[in-house]
User: What shape does this take?
Amino acid sequence: MKRILLILMMVGIAHAHEMIPTYPKWSSSHVENISKTTMEMFNKRQDVEWYEIGIFDKDWKPIPFVTSYKIIKVEYLGHVNVEVFINDQDKKRAVYICSKSKIRKQDLVRTAISSRICSKFTD
Amino acid sequence: MDSVLPDPSGTSINNVFYTYTPLKETSADFTVDIGNWNANKSGYVWKETDVWDGAPGGIAIIKNVPLPYVHRSTFGEGFLESTGNGTVTDATVIYTYKVDPCYNPQFDPACPGFVPPKVEEVDLDTLYDATDDIQVSEVDSEEVYDDEEKSDKDSEKEEEEEKEKSKERLEKAMSAVDNSALFAESFAQSLMLQQMNNAVNVNTYLNKTIPGGVYQETVQLDGGKLPDNRNGQRMNWSTQRLHEEMIRMQYEGK
Amino acid sequence: MLKALLASIITLSFAAVAENTSINGTVQSRCIISTDTEGTYGNPNAYTLTTSPTDGGVLAVTRFDVTLADAYYAQVTAPSEFSTAPALPDVVTWTGDTEVQAVSDATGMADYETNKVEFDYTDKYDLTATGSVWFKTSSAAVMGGSKAFPGGNYTALVVAECVAQ
Assistant: This one.
């Protein structure tokens, strides 16, 4: 059955998580033998405020890196720029950089969706 | 589309949102066309073609089609047609629009292109003047003519009647005043009586006695039987003997 | 002369000062994961928790928005354990599956479901077209020995991942 509706304005509620760039590049930092990259995150999930950063190789094994906080607070509708530093030796193995939502236990009242977005290093 | 889109002439549609679920076999070819003709059916305002060849059925499509604020007068009939083996279920089409009230500039003085309405000048000479109407003047003259024929006696009678009527009206007015004064007095009296009653009521409340009743003693000491003390028997008997001896002493002969 | 000078000073003091404020942004490929519907477990019998709508549950729905074709793949993992639950009397058997619920491009996304790769509780989709795709995840937990689930709050996580190719 066809239904045709007219509305003045459509309002949609979405809970979204976003991270760019998709293909980040390493650049030299002010410290010798250390490279860095900057990732930007946007949080549109009202139920999540904390995100964990991780760097992985092609087999999804974690690689050591340094950032200000590994678990970052991103307010609802907030943008955050995260600087990530890595040893030049580990840089060659690094393939993916991911941000994963961390849901606090006291905030979990029903089945939830944990989101993870991974960008890929091209150089 | 007139039954679908709203009435205001300043309506422009800027977006179409549609969704439906095709039911088909995965191997079947199935195509769905959806859109709106323009008003004279010479072309489309918008049209989308969804090709579902090789896709499993039961997967819904949710699509947004932005439009560049197309005026409602441009819209013709809508259509949803399918070709191939399959059916369309749960179809919904939503139009989002905005209404420009200034589409008609005369709607509001703030609208661009508003032209202040001109005041029409009226030629007074062309207006109807009742005083120039012959028929109106004849009617007036007949009435004046009737008044003149009345006799003096009749006019005196009328004056007397008028005086009596005015007297009666005055009496009625005076009686109404008296009535209202009487009413006010009785109302004041009833208020006073009510207050006195209230005072009585208060006194009655203050002098209210509370029946106390009788409070029976609830504690009872059951005395029971008090038996003689056998241990005291010896003492009593010796005392009694002594007493008797003392009394006999006064009677025994010497 | 004095009047002209005064007039010019007054005019200058009321002159508007204009300033340009820029708005910046970048357009680049991105993947956005949105939670469309959070799932709910129904309890059709004492030893089963399920998201099946016929048993009083609600399927979890995740939406992926992609702005560049062939740049990402999506992985959705159904739950295999409880995140929070009271003490359980026995081992729980888990089942779960993910399917495409809706797409925004019939032609480009029609083959997502047929081309997906499944392993364990994870379904992997190659996002070959730009647009939005909705994935629905079903999950069921059955207590071993048909023992009843103790009363309490039960939650589980569906993991949705978008990985650059």
Q: What stands out?
A: Confidence is low (pLDDT under 50) at residues 1-13 of chain A. Chain A has one domain: 17-120.
